[in-house]
Amino acid sequence: FRSTCGFRRTMLAVAATWSLAIAVLPGLLAAFARGPPSAAAVRPLGSKARAMGHKLQLNAATTATVYPSFMIDISAFTPEAARKRHSGAVGGPPEVDILSTGEGGVFAARGTLRLAVTALEIFQRLTDPEENARIFARTCAAVNYRDLIEEDTTARTRLFEVSKTGRWSLLGIPLTFESTVYALEDWPALEIRFKLKKPGAMKHMSGYWRAVPSGKEETIVEFYNEAMPSFPLPRPVQSFAGRVVKQMCASLLEDLREASFSWPDRPLKLSEDVSELLA
Question: What share of the chain is helix, strand, coil (3-state, %, to 5)?
Fold first, then answer.
């Protein structure tokens, strides 16, 4: 009996540790919007540099370190595939699949959502500080800093390092945590790719948001996330971990869906830096 109880306690401890690690992920995803100056130490490019089409240069070693990369082959996850994948109606609930439950140590999920909003507006709202805070208010407590690392005004991409304090709950217990990610905004592709800056509970974590036009005033929002814990998980815990990843993915897409209902009453005003980037 004691042996059985000890095994159960061990499994619960491992599961709780994994849940705590996964709990960090939702807060990370809200790190893509630019925090207001009063809430974050933001150091953007000057307007003169923007006018000259200036590009902050990173050396090859740095680029390999900070640019988001993936352990799972996502080459088949194209915009066309996203359009075919989602079968639900406009405004309906997210559709989420578990792609990996520990194979090679990686856990991954992919989800889609159909909204009656243009792809550009969705992308603008995801990258706007105030809108992003509204969308993910449930899991994001504060922006600590948001530093612009690289900007290419010709390619219309921006790479940020973002630190945020997230909030989540584990077994009903409220938790807060600090996390830092690199986030690459690709405006022509309407895609945000992200990766964890430093390993901790997670050895690796990356993913993307993508807004895919699917008709006039209609968009498929696609979200992908993969993670590798820093410790191996026993097989009985892997299915639990897979469900946690799927639930997290669905939860974030649901936050976006619910937020979209209020958008018609709150037209979006572009910030000066985004207007210059799109000019």
Answer: 40, 35, 30
